[in-house]
Amino acid sequence: TARDGLEGLKRLIPVAFRVDLINRLSDAGFPAIEVGEFVSPKVIPAMQDTNQVNQQILQKPGVEYSALVPNMRGFQDALAAGVKYITIFASATEAFSHANINCSIEQSFERFAPVIAGAKEHDMKVRGALSCVVGCPFEGEVDPKKVAQLAARLLRMGCYEIALGDSIGVGTPKSITALIHACVEAGVPASALTAHFHNTCGMALANCYAAMEAGVSVLESACGGLGGCPNAPGATGNLASEELLYMLHGLGIDTGVNLEKAVSIGQWVTKSLNHRLDSKVNESMTNPH
Fold it and tell me: Is 229 annotated in the active site?
């Protein structure tokens, strides 16, 4: 994700740099890339000018280039920029919903209805995303049944995929398995779910494995373990793409992604942004003993 990996940086990330990053990710073979988000630059300065980013990247056929859209204003901007895949996002807890998007969960769903209607009209596909699905920085532990109800609601509204975001990275294989089972019981097939796990407690890779065992096949990551959450105190980066690829390739899964290229992107992007490299695989492949 070239969005979640960058949005926590409280400064404008130049368009040319973001275009270069996305082109490198496309070249490495990543099948889906989040190019940015259409939000107020006052709120997320790093993501300013996402329209220019989407228009300047070299779009590879068959790759899903998506952007986050919070409301109708963001939708209109995404439409004008030629985005074909948009992501609407809600929180699994009221406290985080207010902290992150300044409204209740119910109000956020009210904002989604016209966005989804507009997307259908213009042949755009809509993904859903839920944050704080296991734990919340303000409310603590989160009931998987509550998350499952929200996931089912997004599916009914027309989302073809729902990302489960462990925003503060407190999940374990047991809690992730329970969450996916709750979603399936609520009518959301595992094939419609995406794992978006942060690595705050070092559990993201194990949690991805648990999600895969429960039937999830779409896993989100960021090269170099870049990222964090601007509104979740203490949340560290995303799962490093390098770690995920190393595990998947070791399991004999053909990802279509070049691990060596992902390693070099992780090196380049973390150095360029003066961000800590959070990947053991990257370190071992770059400094072999």
Answer: yes
**How many C-beta atoms surround the C-beta of residue 110 within 10 A?**
11
Rounded alpha-carbon distances, angstroms, from residue 232 to 131, 135, 169, 211 = 10, 11, 10, 23
Global pTM reads 0.94
Cβ-based neighbours of 252, under 8 Å, separated by 6 or more? none
Distance CA 45, CA 27 (A): 27
C-alpha–C-alpha distance, residues 246 and 227, integer Å: 20
Residue 130 pairs in a beta bridge with 90, 164
Listed residue (51, 52, 45) closest to 13, CA to CA = 45
Three-class secondary structure of residue 91 per DSSP: strand
Alpha helices in 104-240 (DSSP H): 105-121, 144-157, 173-185, 204-213
Residue-wise pLDDT for 35-45, tens only, equals 999 988 888 88
- 196 is written with which tokens? 């978006």
For residues 178 and 208, the answer to whether their CB atoms sit within 8 Å is no
Q: Is 97 exposed, middle or buried (0-12, 13-18, 19+ CB in 10 A)?
A: buried
Which long-range contacts link 245-250 to residues 24+ away (Cβ below 8 Å)?
245/281, 246/281, 247/205, 247/208, 247/209
What secondary structure letter does DSSP report for 36? E
Cα–Cα distance measured from residue 108 to residue 99, given in angstroms and rounded to the nearest whole number: 13
Inter-CA distances, 217 with 169, 196, 200, Å: 19, 12, 22
| Distance of alpha carbon 106 from alpha carbon 134, whole angstroms | 19
Determine phi and psi for 214, rounding to 5 degrees: -90, 5
User: Within its chain, how far is the Cα of 70 from the centroid?
Assistant: 14
Q: What is the pLDDT of residue 120?
A: 96
Q: How many CB atoms lie within 10 A of CB 16?
A: 11
- Give the pLDDT confidence score for residue 92 in this predicted structure: 93
